Request: fold
Amino acid sequence: MEAPMMRRLVALAGVVVLAAAAAPVAAQAQRGGTLVHALRRACADTLNQHLSNNTPCRMVARHVLDNLVAVNPSDGTVHSWLAESWTITAGGRIYTFRLKRGVRFHDGTPFNAEAVKANFDWTMSPDRPRRGFRYLASGGPLFLKAEVVDEYTVRVIFREPFGSFLTYLSDGGMGMDSPAALRRYGDDYGNTALVGTGPFRLVQWVKGDRIVLERNPDYRWGAAVFGHTGPAYLDRLVYQDIPEATSRAASVETGETHIAQITETDVAGLQGKPGVKIMLVPKAGTTRMLLLNTARGPTADLRVRRAINHAINKPLLIKLPAWAGIGRPAFAPLPSNMVPRAFLPEYNRLRALDYPYDVERARQLLEEAGWRVGPDGIRVRGGERLVIDHVINDADVVWSQPLQAMLRQVGIEMRFRVGDFNFWVGTVSKGDFGSTIISDSGYDPHGMLSEFFRSGSVYNWYGFTSPELDRLLDAAGAASDPAERWTNLIAAMRLVVQNAIGVMAWEQDYVFAARTSVEGLLFNEVGFPYFATTWLRR
Amino acid sequence: MSAEGVFVPAPAAVRRPRTYAGVVAAQLRRNRGAMAGLVLLLAEVVTAVGAPWIAPYDPIHQDLLAALHPPSRAHPWGTDEVGRDILSRVIYGARISLSVGLISVGIAGAGGVLLGLVSGYAGGLAGEVILRTMDLLLAFPGILLALAIVAVLGPGLFNVMIAVGIAGMPAFTRVTRAQTLAVREMDYVTGARAVGCTTGRILARYILPNVLPSVIVLATLGLAGAILTASGLSFLGLGAQPPTPEWGAMLSLGRAFLRQAWWVTTFPGLAIMLTVLAMNMLGDGLRDALDPRLRRG
Reply:
């Protein structure tokens, strides 16, 4: 099948790689049944995507609300959905969309240009909270207005070119709500009601327990890129909260649920169990990085940062129990699965700039930097011990321990400061750290690189500033031509690697366990399952 | 902390030349549970003190190529997720747990007894303020209070000791105050006051010794609670900083591997259980021995 809406799935010995989803499903798909998806928490704030900042909420809402466009995560290309076609004019400032006809919201009202405009107006209205995801995804301060051209043509105008707009427009957080329902339910919208044009309707949300959706029998406007445009096969879709990871894994094993996101360490226990398949989905987002403070402490010295890079044995990390063989050694801030195929050759050249595991080279660099081995094996310079203040949240201890041993080998002491999430954010955001483990999820490559590496940006807590890097990132952000965008992004990543701002440690996979009866599973751009094409084999 | 350390002024008319401490010790020896607890605790103290000689490996040395090895001759209790020897970690962990227990109960006891004496003996507004503050603290479950204090102080083993200490204070204050109120009206205290003893001397010489037996029981039982709470905080990632071999932290990390490597969590879990059990048995025995109403023969 052409361009399946599938992230590239990675093979692992003994793990079922979901090939079925790439095959035409319609021919043999069976209708009916209830599918139960176990999550840590189905939705932490609200299903109203104008207000929500929580990815799982977006993933639920995505089944109820459709988007104007859909992105194919395996190559980053943008495809039509509720918008049939579009044009970009005025140097990337004006986006004009032609909408599909005959689309209706679950409340019976028609989907048209007025509805699209009403959605933008709701988000961008000055009397709404403006700090949410959707406000920024709609261009934030760049947004000027949305206007109706005719019943099925709508125009969105920005003050300056906004290159990421189409990518953001495909996000679950940008789904189209029924303007009538938004008005009718007011503050309850997103809690008791959610009305879109999607393949499923919201039936019930029992907070802290489950969200129940049912099939929309009138649906026939699915994105062609999904491989199935008609009504969903499932009668019902239930998102079940199961906070504890091992219990989630067990729920799939016993058949209590059909699919769950599990942890790497639970794979060994589930592998080979009858009726269970394990699926790995490359995470959309950044690489897992060990970021180093470039402004203070020993890591302000580039040689020390490079030495740390050479001291980390990435292939060995992946083999350790915490990783259980899942994931891949990384070499750049964006993992390879985030890069469109056309730009992979250029991207792969970054690998040559990365720092191979080489203990001797690491020691040599530290010697050059004036750090000599002290009596206890830890290096010293002018009475100062070579200690890296590693500040992490408790979930990252398991990933950090082996790094400690690897750095010890070259004479660096990694001293941990561990706390809960709030402690970690509070400490690291003040720049009070030597190193930390960090990554983000999302699929706007420019946005993610900028938030970590642009001068003064939200996650640039380690004081790295480079006018050259800023220039490259800004150029990538303004470019609506993919080639121009990626040339600048790859050049920006090259600077990140050359300056050894961190150890680009590993590319992470999301791990899912599912019953073998679950067929036609798709994973969307964020790496979460999309059930519009899923069916249960009986 | 042994019963022999208790000193109480002997009442005037004692028929046999038998000290109070001697009576308590004899009573305690008859209690099999308490003796078992005492033996276990002594064994643990020996382990903690002798850790560098007893432990077969360095507790923080990682052998990444020997991760999650099951119990074997080389590693009798197996290795953890980064190839550290679990037996050695549990042995060194005894040091952490015992010192956490002793120090936090020390803080709770010292602070609580002082506040209890003041509020019981002085009474008045100061006593009332102290009492109400303690009531306020008592309203929160201990672990919640400790969590809140750690949230303010920041994570780390030392802060956990302070937090657990503060959370344990109200119990000591209340017990001390109650005893003080009872003893304060005794004739010998009135007598001491009549001959011109200072308040400090009365508190130290005549009231404190009468309060101590209850405090000792509370401390022994509190030790178990303190160790549990501290392990709990470390389990939540707020206590001991890795790679410190703290039992609660070991449980927390090992839990991810529960299905494939039972030994990672089982041994630190057993260590916590045995320690707490031993302390509770000893504490119960001490309580019985120190309580004249329960004294046999």
Q: What stands out?
A: The interface with chain A takes residues 62, 64, 67-68, 81-82, 151, 154-156, 236-238, 241-243, 252-253, 255-261 of chain B (CB under 8 Å).
